[in-house]
Amino acid sequence: MSVPASARERAERLRRDLEYHNHRYYVLDDPEIPDAEYDRLLRELQDLEARYPELVTPDSPTQRVGAEPLASFAEVEHRLPMLSLSNVFDEQELREFDRRVREGLGTERVRYSAEPKLDGLAISLCYEDGVLVRAATRGDGYRGEDVTAQVRTIQSLPLRLRDLEQGERWPALLEVRGEVFLTYERFAAINARAQRDGGKVFANPRNAAAGSLRQLDPRVTAARGLHLFCYGLGAVEGASWSESHSDSLARIARWGLPVSPEQRSVEGIEGCIAYHAAMAERRERLAYAIDGVVFKVDRRADQERLGFVARAPRWAIAYKFPAQEELTTVEAVDFQVGRTGALTPVARLAPVAIAGVTVANATLHNMDEIQRKDVRVGDTVTVRRAGDVIPEVVRVLPERRPSETTPVQLPAHCPVCGSDVLRAEGEAVARCTGGLFCAAQRREAIKHFASRRAMDIEGLGDKLVEQLVEHDLVADPADLYGLTLEQLSGLERMGEKSAANLLAALDRSRQTTLARFIYALGIREVGEATARALAEHFRDLDALIEAPESALLPIEGIGPVVAAHIQAFFSQPHNREVIAKLRSPSLGAITWERLAAPEDERAAVAATSSPLAGKTVVITGTLDRPRDAIKAQLEALGAKVTTSLSKKTDLLIAGAEPGDKKLAKAEALGVEIIRRERLAEWMGA
Ligand code: IVH
Question: What's the CA gap between 592 and 362, in Å, rounded?
Fold first, then answer.
């Protein structure tokens, strides 16, 4: 059946329009048409191609959804070899690199292109007459695997380069090199799903990206949501080169290819060092993994003069961040008891230095995690520490397991007080049922009570609280106010001076606010913001103590679970007793001012300590509570919550499955991205 000219033209038009809208959506994050309209155009093209299969072209947007599975990967020879980079690990070595470059060029100062070193896998993309014809993995650097069908599913990658009305046209042959990677969120989602379905769980985003790309069935790749940034050129024919590497990147970005928004041109070694320091800090806020930064001599003519050593260019260097993972062995698994009685398994490790810090303990999170990773005493494990998060056990090396190990058991009794340990159905967390009878819970409750955002008792640090509880001087927060100079100065590392200071601090803390007081009580899931909402709503502690569930639920941010925790807390005679002692004029003598109007209170918060004060915030993805509850809580902490991301936005809060567009845009705008775990800390949950 011959294809009518009208159908051919229409298909051509649809392909161009779809690709244009795809770029606006995935790369520029600035869609012009609603999704429904895009879907309609795509369907029209699919129908046309189904009717006239000759119309299907490799650059058709219909090909992104994933073609039929392949039997095997074909081998591809790279037009120019894909090289590697030499590494340096400290400033000294970087200075030596710069010295070699300057000597080689006979110049005083060199301009470099500075880029993150993306932790994914290298890919070579070949465009002929602007159409993506081949994508290949690095392989041995000379020959790789043909993964064209898989790479086509990457939404931000143009299947056809953009025609610019003004500006230069792309060369007849353009080979582009880049890195394929996964965001942390996609990685977590892929693993969560694999775990549920009994599939392969990946150790890190890089392995997951490689596993997703090397799928014979491109439909599987399509579902994984790979990303890509281009960082350089391979063979180019039929056009002149840019003068500099950074110009080349700017140019290919104009043709629609995704380039890291973190790329900068920097001057001299000082510029390199400053960029490295800035990226080391920024790293934690990126939505994807980087393992260092790459510096490239920017001028192409200079690159050519410097040439190559073995398989790496003399004009580029990777300055790696210190390794964040190391191997060590598990010597024991202990259970720590938290303020709410939650038992957290902790691996005691043979001490190991990771990125300059000695790590001897790592969290195992909960029993489900222990079982999933099958961590046992005696195992050799990979431990990861990233920034200031608690180190964690990543995985076990099963081949190094000694004989006769046994799985870790959840203790039946609290290791601190011997009370029963309960794990509610469907909950990952097991808890000690001892309540304030349990010294661990008592200690944690007192630490919380004294903390800066609660009663703010200066000088009453964790170590001191531990001593006070250990010596039976304090069993509940009210006892703090009965401490004497004598008792305190008898403690370890406590002179009379610091004892007197502490008493003065205790005295100062007596004058507080109702919100702080409620927060200080440490009711489960009542963080600072919820405490403030409760204070604003009830304005009086007795009203809160007696409040039935029906009076709690209308308050923003309080659902049935939190309401139940609040009621459970106030129904405990022990808790009521402690509160009475805290308020009694002869002991705690704690007072608070009558509350001002809610708006004033909010403004006061905004002006003070909250890290969110005055910040404009946007939320993406799912959080553990309804959006409007989170919004209210953020507002109570002084933030302004908006829906659209712009230059004015200070923070993007990323929940599970965040919008990729939003993340990319936030990154492009330099907006700080806060993951939900950090948010929970801020909100005191
Ligand atoms: S340039 C001739 N730039 O690192 C220079 N590589 O160790 C070729 N990589 O195989 C590489 N981010 O997969 C370059 N901004 C970046 C990079 C980068 C990650 C990877 C790449 C390469 C490996 C070399």
Answer: 41
- Whose tokens are 């933030």? That residue is 639
Q: What is the pLDDT of residue 72?
A: 85
Residue 237 Cα to ligand 1 middle (Å): 22
Helix (H) or strand (E) run with residue 181 in it? strand 173-181
The enclosing domain of 380 has a CATH number of: 2.40.50.140
Domain boundary among 557, 592, 627: 592
Q: Locate the ligand 1 atom nearest the alpha carbon of residue 115 and give its number.
A: 15
The DSSP call for residue 73 is P
Show which residues are catalytic: 117
Distances (CA, A) of 313 to 97, 139, 229, 304, 393: 12, 18, 20, 10, 37
574-627 pLDDT, tens digit each: 889 999 999 999 888 999 876 555 555 555 555 556 777 778 888 888 777 767
Which of 358, 377, 400 terminates a domain? The answer is 400
Q: Which of 84, 138, 264 to mutate to test the pocket of ligand 1 (most atoms within 8 A of CB)?
A: 84
Helix (H, G, I), strand (E, B) or coil at 76: strand
Are residue 491 and residue 640 in the same domain, yes or no?
A: no
444: tokens are 């944690």
Q: Provide the pLDDT for residue 8.
A: 94
Beta bridge partners, 143, equal 77
The reply to whether 407 falls in a domain is: no
**Residues 581 and 621 occupy one common structural domain:** no
Same domain, 91 and 216: yes
Closest-CA residue to 311 (of 498, 81, 493, 123): 81
Residue type, 79: R
| Domain co-membership, 492 together with 581 | yes
232 lines ligand 1 (CB under 6 A): yes
Give helix then strand counts, H and E, for the chain: 25, 26
3-state secondary structure 428-474: CCCEECCHHHCHHHHHHHHHHHHCCCCCCCCCCCHHHHHHHHHCCCC
Atom 21 in ligand 1: which residue has the minimum CA distance?
Answer: 122
Phi first, then psi: what are they for 150, rounded to 5°?
Answer: -70, -45
Question: 29-36: long-range contacts at Cβ-Cβ below 8 A with a sequence spacing of 24 or more?
Answer: 29/661, 29/662, 29/664, 29/665, 29/668
Asked if residue 446 has its Cβ within 6 Å of ligand 1, the reply is: no
Q: From the CB of 651, is ligand 1 less than 6 Å away?
A: no
- pLDDT confidence of residue 457: 94
Range of the domain at 549: 433-592
Q: Per the structure block, which two tokens stand in for 185?
A: 């969120």
Entry pTM: 0.56
Find out whether 377 and 405 touch, Cβ atoms under 8 Å. yes
- Spans of the chain below 70 pLDDT: 1, 29, 65-67, 386-389, 594-609, 626, 628-629, 680-685
Number of domains in the chain: 5
For a mutational test of ligand 1's pocket, the pick from 119, 228, 231, i.e. the residue with the most ligand atoms closer than 8 A to its C-beta, is 231
Question: Would you say residue 414 lies in a domain?
Answer: no
For residue 263, how far is its CA from the centre of ligand 1 (angstroms)? Answer: 13
384 and 467 in a single domain? The answer is no
